[in-house]
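Our consortium's second objective concerns turning raw sequence data into structural hypotheses that experimental partners can test. To show how far this objective has progressed, the report includes one record in full. It was chosen at random from the queue rather than selected for favorable results. The single chain below, 308 residues long, was entered without modification.
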Amino acid sequence: MVISLKELTTKELLAPGHRLCAGCGPSIATRMALKAARGPLVVTNATGCVEVSTTIFPYTAWRIPWIHSLFENAAATAAGIEAGFKALGKRKNTKNHIDIIALGGDGGTFDIGIQALSGALERGHDFVYICYDNEAYMNTGIQRSGATPRGASTTTSPAGEIIPGKRGLKKDFIGICVAHQIEYAATASIGFPNDYITKVRKALEVNGPAVIHVLAPCPLGWRADPINTVKLAKLAVQTTVFPIYEVEDGKYKLNIRIKKPIEVEEYLKLQGRFRHIFNPKFRDVLEAIKQDITTNWERILRLCNVNP
């Protein structure tokens, strides 16, 4: 299944004039996702960059029903919306379907909101959860999150003379979601819009919960030129830093096969948050990052039953 341009909504459901940064990856991810809308749509949005910058009182950039959730309860809010529409349908004896999207950043998803998401997935509520991943708490000061990769310098994992940025691996968010035995989960990148929008449509068509994890670079937090946002989103895939795959009924499928990965240095050198790892004293950190990438890519290939 590949969604065609004719199937996309021509309406801009996220209006121009919001106050997100130039080159903002999450704004691109949000706009693309809304292009996959099939009909009536409600969005609940966790606190974060997208929420605060699109709804500065008394203005809103949303042209659809939209609800602000707290950091921790976007999935619970989506579950409540779904339950409310079900009850309304029974009361009025109607079967009108409403699509529901819960939207949150990596901080509000990988960390603060994981309990509400886990509960909603376990109960089987019919909604799509989209995590726009910019790999840190960008809205509150660029603190590290469970999605921050090894070596990245943030305000709570600063690179210095001794500590080389964040220590430890990025959380396997899709693996956590798949463990709930949901019908559909997928990774995506704003650098590959057709793949991403198609996956959002597939997720909306699932009768039950579905999850999309989309990489959405942040120029401010990544200390990158805004002109390179989409380039970075592509390079993350082309270097196998961020594998693109989907899981349908527990079966993994690789969507973008990278036969000759680009050297990861080409990706890292465009980001100020990794500048320190090119210092010879942190050479071991760069090698550890490379090993993380290789290990994870090989793991995904095995899960997808694809030969290296």
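The partners drew two points from this record. The mean pLDDT is 95. DSSP finds eleven helices and eight strands in the chain. Both points have been shared with the crystallography group to help prioritize constructs.
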